[in-house]
Amino acid sequence: MSTSVVAPSREELVQRIREIAxxxxxxxxxxSENRRLHEDTLRAxxxxxxxxMRIPLRYGGYESDARTMVAVSDEIAQIDGSAAWVAVCSxxxxxxxxxxPDEVQDEVFADxxxxxxxxxxxxxxxxxxxxxxxxxxxxxxCISGATSSRYQQIGAILLDPNGQPYPVMGPVLMSDLEIxxxxxxxxxxxxxxxxxxxxxxxxxQERVLPAPMVVNGESASKLNADTAMYRAPxxxxxxxxxxxxxxxxxxxxxxxxxxxxxGRKLTYTEYPSQADAPVTHLRIAQATMKIDEAEFxxxxxxxxxxxxxxxxEAWELLERGRSRADEGAAVQLxxxxxxxxxxxxxxxxxxxxxxxxxxxxxxQTFSLHAMMNPDVNAETYGRILxxxxxxxxxx
Length: 395
Hints:
This protein is α+β, with helices and mostly antiparallel strands. It has 3 domains: 10-108, Butyryl-Coa Dehydrogenase, subunit A, domain 1, CATH 1.10.540.10; 116-210, Beta Barrel (Butyryl-CoA Dehydrogenase, subunit A, domain 2), CATH 2.40.110; 231-385, Butyryl-CoA Dehydrogenase, subunit A, domain 3 (Up-down Bundle), CATH 1.20.140. The protein has helices at residues 10-34, 39-47, 66-77, 81-97, 102-108, 211-215, 234-260, 278-311, 317-343, 356-367, 374-385, and strands at 116-118, 126-130, 133-143, 151-158, 166-173, 178-180, 194-204, 209-210. Strand 2 (126-130) and strand 3 form a beta hairpin.
């Protein structure tokens, strides 16, 4: 166990991503075609320390803050959104495992480069209490990065014969789960978000926590109890962890558009080039401003998480709701921007040799995630603003 780790700065981590960009870029199309990240991409991300970013310092992790996560995931997503998504999912999982008892962390984080996949919902899984722990059966869909992870943070509904059923979470080895290769989608194909299944899987009691405890960021760890990174609720952390992926993909679409713009004609018009047309000027200004606005929401979200973690002040319900709303607003804005760029890219952009459509599809699939839904997140925030119950414990 490391005791003298010096975590790299935000700028250094971003620079590391720029250095491995050629590897990720060279394998992005392969990942989409083969529905999983290429081994070279995973090795490059690991060598850059990406999977260490939300692991405690004492294990060799970096305890990176929210603004660093936004910057790094943004940088990766500008190259390949699927690679960024697999990374942020592991950040969510490793952060959550930092709330578990220290002996559980000792096992999972024995390798500081460990990749972990996760779900925050129980799927179809149920559990029953048995001697020394629980027995789990069920399936979890859409487990991003499952094929390259060592552990999965699973969720299940515990059927307690002495009380009401309630959700629980806990880490299990991927080798104890069955994988169903059913990730056949129009976008985010490279994330390898397959389904996993447990059959009579025993989980020791020390690896099991009530899901509401994890969602609320309540720590069972003695050594992490006063660590700044853990002074935040799970959903606000999750929002700050993932929002940079949306920004990066939108910037990728924007940059691809501008790379193709010189010399492009505006078919069936007399303009000598697309860049000369006022309609192009209007569209591109609108789209670029939307990305700028999305960046505001992403940065406000990350700054809120970092400030609250640094101060240790209690989170207000309004702040929790606004965290979800900020991510929803950012996702809506980048979707609108990507639609403008895609429409202005012309029929030739439909060819698979032009990456813009792949990235548009990736961004669309990303935005379908239940935690990214702009309308649901806005409604939740609006309920809180109006003094109503948020109607969810994912807050």
